[in-house]
Amino acid sequence: MEEGPYKYVMDGNGRVSRVIRIGTRKSQLARIQTDSVAEKLKELFPEVHFEIVAMSTIGDKILDTALSKIGEKSLFTKELENALEKNEVDLVVHSLKDLPTTLPPGFTIGAVLRREDPHDAVVLHPKNAGKSLDALPNKSVIGTSSLRRAAQLKKRFPHLEFKDIRGNLNTRLKKLDEKEDFAAIILAAAGLCRMGWDSRISQILSPEDCMYAIGQGALAVEVRTRDTDILEMVSVLHHSETVLRCIAERAFLRQLEGGCSVPVAVHTEVKDSQLYLTGAVYSLDGSDSLKDTMQTSLADDKQELEEVDERMQHVGVTATKISASAQDAAEKLGLDLANLLLSKGAKEILTVARQLNDAS
User: Which residue is catalytic, options 60, 90, 98, 328?
Assistant: First the structure.
C-alpha cells in the first residue's frame, strides 16, 4: 500500500511496516556490501521492512573499454541516482570510491561506514604462488584497470609490464586463473575480503609501494537530501574516524579536479586527535610525481554541543552527529594539501596525464 510518499506492507499477523527500498548494483560484491548494510539497519530498526532493488550501471555494461576512457564521472552510480530521483528506491549503497566528489543537487551521503583495509592487494596466477611483485620474472604482465595503481607500480617495479583488465571481481579472477595473459592482478583488498577471498591475497601493498584511491575500502549510503527521516535513520551507521578521513580525501581530489581519468592517490590516518593526509599526483608512467603530507588537529575546542546545520554538507557528506569543527578541519586539510601540490605544478602533471590517456 502507498500512503503519501511512503510504502507499507502488512505481515501475516496484520502488522503494518514501512517499506524502505535499497538500491544496489547487480554484481556479487555490490550485493554482499548492500546486504551487510541492510542487515545493520534491520537490527537497528526491526519495525521497518527493508527491500533490495538491484540494477545494472553503465560501468557494469561497458566491459571492453578502460574505465578512464569512458569519460563519465558517475559510471557506477548514475542509474542508481536516477532511481533515487524517481522515488523508485529510498537509499543507495555504493563503494565510496565510485562516488564523484560533487553529487547531483538533491542528493547527499547520509552514512560512511567503518572502513575496511583501504590498501591494494596482489593476487597471483597460481603458477606464481608464493612470490611477491619484486620476485616476478622480467616483463611479467600485471593486470589493473586503474591509472593510479599502474602509475605508482611502474615507477616502483620497472621490470614489470601493466595491462588493462576489466570486469567485476569474479571475471577478473577467472581471466587471471584460466589464461596465461597475466602473472598477477591488483585489486582492492577490501573487496576481496568482503567476498571471502582473503586467501587469494598474496601481498598487501604498503603506502610506499602504492597509495590508495580516495574513499577506498569505505561504503557510503546515498539518500535524498529532503528525506530528513531517512537521513536521520542512516546517520547511525556513520563511523566518525572514517568520515573525517574520507572528507579530507574527497576535498583533496575535488580541489585537484581529479576523477577516474587521472592518477591521484592518498593515505590518511588519525593519531592522537591529529588527522594526517598524504596525497600525490602522478604522470601516467609514474616518472613525474608530486607528493606531500599535511596534518590538522581534530580536537574539539568547544565544550558545548554545537548546533549543526541540517543542510551542511562537506564534499557531499552530511554527518550532523559528528563535530562540525572537526569536519571543517578535515575539509580544509584536503583543500590545503591540494593547493600546495597545485602550487608545485600538479595541474600540469594531471593535464598531460589526461591528454595522454584520452589520446591513447
Answer: 98
In angstroms, the CA 321 to CA 324 distance is 8
Chain length of the chain: 360
Q: How many CB atoms lie within 10 A of CB 305?
A: 9
Give CA–CA dist 224/228, Å, rounded: 8
C-alpha closest to that of 109 among 96, 90, 123, 124: 96
- Residue 247 in contact with residue 314, Cβ under 8 Å? yes
* pLDDT at residue number 162: 96
pLDDT at residue 3, as a whole number = 46
| Stretch among 32-46, 119-133, 290-304, 319-333 having the lowest mean pLDDT | 290-304
Spell out the residues 6+ positions from residue 14 whose beta carbon is closer than 8 angstroms to its own. none
User: Residues near 22 by Cβ (< 8 Å), separated by ≥ 6?
Assistant: 34, 37, 38, 50, 51, 52, 53, 89, 90, 91, 92, 93
Residue 222 and residue 81 in contact, taking contact as beta carbons nearer than 8 Å:
yes
60: burial class by Cβ within 10 Å (0-12, 13-18, 19+)?
A: middle
Instruction: Examine the residue annotation and report whether 98 is marked as an active-site residue of this protein.
Output: yes
Q: What are phi and psi of 48, to 5 degrees?
A: -100, 145
Residue 353 dihedral angles phi and psi, to the nearest 5°? -60, -45
Rounded distance, CA 89 to CA 338, Å? 35
Q: With 0-12 CB in 10 A as exposed, 13-18 as middle and 19+ as buried, what is 213? A: buried
Residue 306 has pLDDT above 60, yes or no: no
- Are 350 and 68 within 8 A, CB to CB? no
Please check the confidence at residue 301 and state whether its pLDDT lies above 90: no
Nearest to 39 by CA among 194, 246, 227, 198: 194
